[in-house]
Specification:
- With 84 residues, this protein is mainly α.
- The chain folds into two domains: 1-45, Arc Repressor Mutant (Orthogonal Bundle); 47-84.
- Helix content is 73%, strand content 0%.
- The chain is built from four helices and no strands.
- Helix 1 (11-24) packs across helix 2.
Length: 84
């Protein structure tokens, strides 16, 4: 569930929010939301739920590339680049 809150920003913080919004390609409120979440992770570490999701994704990648031959891929890509 989403909740609305109101915060007052001084000129410096408002400018920073706009800069981040421009960089992220989103609204200033979304940039502030992302910044709060990022700061939380910096200070408190990644949440257990997010850590669990990362482990699941990593395990899936390992599974997908288990029998993958990277040297063969590199050889094939070099051949394509050279026009063979």
């Amino acid at each position: 569930m989403h909740k609305r809150t109101t915060i007052l920003l001084d000129d410096e913080v408002q400018a920073a929010a706009r800069e981040l919004a421009h960089r992220y390609g989103c609204s200033a409120s979304e940039a502030i939301r992302r910044s709060v979440l990022h700061h939380r992770e910096t200070v408190m570490g990644v949440s257990p739920a997010r850590r669990k999701k990362r482990v699941q994704v990593l395990n899936r990648l390992i599974e997908l590339f288990e029998d993958h031959d990277i040297e063969e891929d590199i050889r094939r890509l070099k051949e394509q680049d050279e026009g063979f």
